[in-house]
Design a protein that fits this description.
Blueprint lengths: L5 H8 L3 E3 L5 E2 L6 E9 L5 H7 L7 E5 L7 E3 L1 H9 L4 E8 L2 H4 L5 E7 L11 E2 L3 E3 L2 E3 L4 E5 L2 E5 L1
Parallel strand pairs: 3-4, 4-6, 5-6, 6-7
Antiparallel strand pairs: 1-12, 2-7, 3-8, 3-11, 9-10, 11-12
The structure holds oxaloacetate ion.
The site of oxaloacetate ion (OAA) has 11 residues, from β5 and α3.
Length: 156
């Protein structure tokens, strides 16, 4: 069954949804994906991202608030493959990824601002499953998020 488009969803339930106006790129092998929100907040450090994606995703979408930094990649093909292997539906990266060609072949939704080959530090700094805000839209852990080529909608 194909997922309802975000535009149709907005027409039917817009009053209960927030739409992200920031223009993310669709960089995964699946452009349409949805699921419950899980979160990581981190800045140029991706140890917590890897740690979370090593655990069962049960169809969730990991929203990574990297503060919008494009200086280092928070996800590469190895971390993205962990997400596939552990049953995550997708990633929304408010920041950069790398290995974009390989990530584009994976059965995973990946939205990110762009790419940069520079790697992130791995100290584990950051927070997990806290509400995060991207371009004025709050992503609460457990809220449902829907993504496709048009954009990102999340339950208010
Ligand atoms: O290890 C990293 O920082 C990210 C990466 O390159 C990968 O996931 O392949």
């Amino acid at each position: 069954m194909t997922q309802l488009s975000t535009a149709d969803l907005y027409d039917e339930h817009g009053e209960q949804l927030r739409s992200v106006s920031l223009q993310f790129q669709n960089l995964g092998g699946m452009s349409g994906f949805s699921g419950p929100v899980r979160t990581v907040r981190c800045f140029q450090d991706n140890a917590l991202v890897r740690q979370q994606l090593q655990t069962p995703g049960d169809g969730a979408v990991l929203v990574i608030d990297g503060g919008g930094s494009l200086e280092t990649a928070l996800v590469g093909d190895i971390i993205a493959s962990l997400a596939v292997d552990n049953g995550w539906a997708g990633l929304i990266v408010h920041g950069a990824i790398r290995d974009r060609v390989a990530i584009g072949t994976l059965p995973l939704g990946v939205k990110a601002l762009g790419s940069n080959p520079a790697k992130s530090s791995k100290t584990g700094a950051g927070e997990v499953d806290v509400p995060v805000e991207i371009a004025g839209v709050v992503f609460r852990p457990g809220a449902t998020v829907w993504c496709d080529d048009d954009g990102i909608l999340v339950e208010a």
